[in-house]
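pasting Transcriptional regulator GlxA family with amidase domain for the record, 324 residues
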Amino acid sequence: MIDVVFLVLPDTLLLDLAGPAEAFRLANQALRRRGRAPAFRMRHIGPQPQTASSVGLTVSGLEPLPAGFDPAQPTWLVLLGRPGEVDEVVGATPDWLAARDWLGRAVAPRLAPPGAPAGALRLLTVCSGALLAADAGLLAGRQATTHHELLDGLRRLAPAAKVQANRVFVDDGAVLTSAGITAGIDLALHLVRRHCGEDIAATVAQVMVVFARRGPQASQDSGLLAHRDHLHPALHRLQDAVAAAPAEAWDAARMAAVAHVTPRHLARLFREHTSLSARGWLEQVRATLAAQALRQGRDEREAVALAGFSSPRQMRQALARQRA
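structre below
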């Protein structure tokens, strides 16, 4: 189980905390419903045992800043945003300074360096949480982003960082940074997909009724999360079923039966809500899974079986169409 540790300071943007936390909670819920163990255990820490959030609601029960983290325990530390301009946020309070110094002592030595495989400890930031990471010296040599209004401030605080504009989030191995507010949900979905699977991430996105946006790189987009920005229950029912078992036989009759509609009506629904045919969407899902399998070092035969293609030739043709 991964410890997801939220660092809560005074005036923390409540949605920066609640959005990702709900995504991880819903992932645990979806895993339990499938008979699998939960993946995430959430903790909340801070310089004070309680503090007021950005909307005035008090967040209490905060653990003290730990002396360190167990090197054998997978841990994601999440730095959250606060309202205000750069000069109003950075170093403006004793709590910020305490958190910055603690990050330098307890976190910086444990983070894998830029370009190295991520270790047990990862750092996640939402919105101006990236400014705290920069102030603590954790972004040097890394790709990073933040809210578009704070990009210049991030560049000043972390001149050795490779600051990326117009990005929902940036995955740089041990450090993952996201833009403002709802981008924290996108980052959480990205991590849920990676650690729990495409079907769990798709379920979480559907329950949260969020637009499943592109990830950090187009080639790594999830075919199972794509075309889920609609609210039609029949299509979601089918897409959930395919996400859970993409390699099974999915002919038009079976897809229509799972969606509880006729094949003709299913074809109309797909055209209306995804601009694809049901067959075209299924091929996109399978091509994504096959490409991922090949990138992971699987041979063609394994990729064909995992994705549900009938032959290597069919898989190669589908991959070519998706690249066109």
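The chain has two domains: 2-194, 230-323.
Residues 217-221 have pLDDT under 50 and may be disordered.
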